[in-house]
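#struct-pred
JK: can someone run the complex with adenosine monophosphate? inputs below
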Amino acid sequence: MRLILLGPPGAGKGTQAQRLVEKYGIPQLSTGDMLRAAVKAETEIGKRAKAVMDAGQLVSDEIVNQIVSERVDAPDAANGFILDGFPRTVPQAKALGEILSGKGLKLDAVIELAVDESALVKRMEKRVAETVAAGGQARADDNPESFKKRLVEFREKTAPLSAYYAGTGELKKVDGMAPVDEVTEAIEAALMQAAES
Ligand code: AMP
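RT: done, C-alpha cells with the ligand placed:
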C-alpha cells in the first residue's frame, strides 16, 4: 500500500503513521526525519538543509525529490510506504507522480488530517513538554516562532495539495481533531474505501 498523509504541522501525522506502520508492516518515509538524520550526520545535504529547517522554511524540491526517489527504492519499501511530510507543494506532488510512474508504481490513497489551526500551537507545546519530560530533546523547529512560520508555509504551499489530490480523485479527508483512536479508525475506513474503488 502506498499512501500519503497530509495535514499541517502538529496534526498528528507522525502518530497515525506509526500505527499504520505496525498494522501494515510498511515503512513511514518522513522527509523531515530523513533531513534531520542528514543534519545530524553532517552530510552535504544536511549542511545545505540545516539553516532552512531551523527557520521553519522549506528545503528545495531538488533535495527532497532526490531523497524520496532513493528511499522508495530501498528493499523495505517494496510492499509500500507511508509518505509523511512529502509532497509539501504542488510541484513536489507532480514530481512524485513522475518518480512513481518511472518506477511503475502508483499511490493507493492520500489521507488528509483536517484540523482546527488554533489547536495546533497547543499541540506543539504539549509535544515539546512530553518529549522533555521523557528525557528527550525538543526539535530545533518546535518553538512558537518557527512553528508559526511552518504553519504559514503550510497554508501557502501545502494546503493547495488538498485541491490537487481532490482533482486526481485520490483524496480522503479524515477529522484530525477526533481522539487519536477514532482518527486511526477513520483512516482505516478510508483505506478500505480506497481499496474498493
Ligand atoms: P517535518 O518533520 O515534516 O515537520 O519537517 C521538518 C522540516 O524539514 C520542515 O520544516 C522543512 O524545513 C523540511 N522538510 C521536510 N519535508 C519537506 C519537504 N517535502 N519539502 C521541503 N522541506 C521539507
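RT: quick notes.
The first strand starts at residue 2 and ends at 6.
The radius of gyration is 16 Å.
JK: thanks, will look after standup
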